[in-house]
Amino acid sequence: MEIKAISGKLSKIQVDAIIIGYFEGMENLTATISGIDKALNGVITELITQKEIKGKVNEVNIIRTLNKLPASRVAIVGLGKRNNLTPEKVRTATAAVLRQLRKQGALDIATAALGMDIAGISSEQSAWAIAEGAILGLYSYRKHMTGDPDYEEVKQLTIIEANEAKLDGLKAGIHKGEITAEACILTRDMVNEPSNYMTPSSMAATAKNLAEAYGLKINILEREQMQELKMGALLGVSQGSDRPPKFITLRYHGKESEKIDVALVGKGITFDSGGISIKPSDGMGEMKGDMAGGASVMSAISAIARLKEEINVIAVIPATENMPSGSAFKPGDILTSMNGKTIEIISTDAEGRLILADALAYTKTFDVKYIIDVATLTGACHIALGDVCTGVFTNNQKLADKIVAAGNNTGEPMWQMPMFDVYKELNKSDVADIKNTGGRWGGAITAAKFLGEFVGETPWAHLDIAGTSTLEKDRGYFLRGATGIPTRTLISFILSLVKKTGK
Questions:
Q1: pLDDT tens across 428-470, in order?
Q2: Residue range 2-163 in CATH 3.40.47.40
């Protein structure tokens, strides 16, 4: 789908459909809506009077123009109350109306700059939200389906604005929105991919493709190199699988300094059977998505490279399967991590924190300002927060505040969880430095406290996306299956740092 912005009048453009926004309780129609209403002999006003058009968020009404306008249809999408408008509502409204129009066979669509100059929304923010809503809302994963869908894909979306002075902002917003949405789509595609296709080697190949496409530096460690670095925790998890593990590092240098501003560390378990502590068979197929953290950090760094921001970022992804076999690690084993800390294995199904332990220890070898790890880590976080909020755990309140703000900005809500030192006591082992699970109670927190053992004093945040990485049914522009969370939050957080440095 091509998205562009041009100067003109919405009522004059010849397309399959035009989109206009309508606010709940709107007393006076805008000039654009009034002109279209007049051309349609007052049908919009009549529908408003009959309360068929209410303006509630994501409400869609589609009117056939019957040759009274160059466009074949007028789609009126509700934006809620005017004073409460946000870019997130523009995103969800765009997705809702475009899905309805796609069902009706509209392939060439034009829209007003929804929300622009309302409630502080700039032209760039409006176009950014429209582009994200369009791309994310029309997403589908059909790679392994042999039949054709029962619809054609939208080919073009044009933002129409009469004021030419607004075009630069709209075009800039489209450019950024396309990049952030496409990064999120990459995450969705990787997470939706079945595990016989998305193996550790496949993740490494995807990283290589991103490096070549966007000028990233890449380093992939093989098993022998991991052994040299004494990554005993990661190697312990991997030893039950016939597929070799991969340790992937992508680096983006947007400025000359060697200091890394942000290190993104993502869990890359391409399939999690639970190992010897095997999971129930019901729902085990969903464990193909246990590499969502790794996918999101790879996608986020690719977007920052495409945006050419003046910041230095690395993405670190330990990738392996967790499988049961005669060679698999076992409950009761003791593994030694890269930083020398010994770990008693209570459950082999608490494997994500083990591979992240070595990844975090490795990341500490760089000169890093902030570390953010992302993982589908615990069912406990899913139980606590459902599929609505990602859990945020941190040793640095300012960092947490920035991440929560970024999540609010992107429509990917984050909720900070407690990290009291008393939880650390639950991870103590009688036979090693630490054990890999603190028990049933407070499981998301004790898992985060485990990871905290490997970051030292570096400002660090852990994002537990166990509940938010996938959905069981559609919600706005998040569709059933992989959501792509928290790819756009990571990008937004990094962009906020760039702005602060004065770029």
A1: 999 999 999 999 999 999 999 999 999 999 999 999 999 999 9
A2: no
